[in-house]
Amino acid sequence: MVKWITLKQSDKDRSLGLETGAEYRQRWVSIRVVYFIGFLMFLAFGIVATGIWPYLRSLDPSVSKVFLGYAFAVPPLGQLIFSPFFGWWTNKLTSIRIPLVLLVIIFTIANVLYAVIEEFEDNRKYILLIARGLVGIATSAVTICRAYISSATRLSERTKTISLMSLAQCLGLMVGPIMQSLFSGIGEDGFQVFGLFRVTMYNVAGWICVFLGLFNLVLLLPAFFKDSPIAVKEAMKSQGATNAKETWKSIELQYFSITIMVTAFSVLMLVYVAFQTLLSPIALDQFNWTNEESLFYLGILMTAGALISCILFLMLDPLCKRFSETNVLVYGAMLALFVSQLVMIPVGSEPITAFLENNGNSTGNGTALGCPPTQEWCASIPPIGKVQFTISYTLLCISFSIGTTLSQAVFSKLLGPRPQGTWMALLTCAGSAARILGPGAVTVYVLSGTYWTFGGGSVLTGLVFVWMWVYRNRLQPVVVVKPSTAEEMKVLNPSKLVQ
Fold first, then answer.
1. CA–CA distance, 422 with 410 (Å, rounded to integer)
2. What is the 8-class DSSP label of residue 382?
């Protein structure tokens, strides 16, 4: 652990002869810059999560909740459209600095626009939509960061590095709402800055991101960030190859295994986003909670889930040294995901409406509590219990933390040392599509109820789990080595060896 803090190269790393102590230090400084980019891009989502709706209403009192859905859907759509281009472009360049700088500039401009929307007289809500769309384009940087980690880490380092990248992103999502709350004291009227623009409790989120974006541009200067293609050096040494292209072309792409990993990643993302979208409707409909109670208890649940995720990100590397990555992924992520959906299927004979009436269903502030009459299935389906709900969400957080991290790690290792920009764009697009489709679970829930929602989720996740379990041995990356270096590479990567 000490070397990860001091950036001091260990004797074991030095003995490999792949880089000097100075190169080792520079490589890990650059990786930490990538961590910050991941933190920043996810902060941009977390920091507006609680404030974007009241901000929209202050800009345009007539705005509908449907438009709020557009505001949340536009960023992943922008990422979905532009990630393939930036991934392809990255593969054509010798350094990822130029596309990263461009995307951070777009990120900064987008947040300036978000912060000054009220300076425009007309079409304010559409300007907000443009600003969020530009943020979505900027988050294509996540694709580049994933590709960079794959090229700038040795096989033995990759899982831990991807885990810490996931931790940085999780912290961005956690810190964002906290920062928004801390600055809520500014108020709706805010204050003027040099008579040029106004800072309010709503647009302060944009200004924070602008400041951090400018700081990120400084970190991308050559003094801090340099490309370090250590993965291809490791592969060249193991194969005795003389050039990088010869090295990665000797490793055949395992398209079937790659398809499994992309599917697993997208299903994980789909179910997680769908459940997050359903948290509030379920709490209000099933537990007879008021809006205030829902915000309070769900806040506690989500905070606990985020803490569980952070702990798991730190535990993954030692866990994968004790058990194979594939087994941790299949059982710790995909089986847990399946059980999380299965647990949510209601049990009992008493329908929701009768249950709520027997437990004091009432009216608060003129608004009826519990399952609304428009959802006719409430009269025939039993309620979900609070214990069910808590267990399911805990399993979902465990599954998501382990699954998204290890699916990226295994996916990267299956690709080998080849340029991964385009391939990582494919993974990003799968996640973006899932984030767009996930909120559609609300429609299924409202129209058809919990049996269809979580029964369908159980079938989907169960099929993916069985598929991965049957073919789990094919998810191990093949490493081509010279006979003379086989023993050395077994230490670096205990996966299958081809000599």
1. 16
2. P
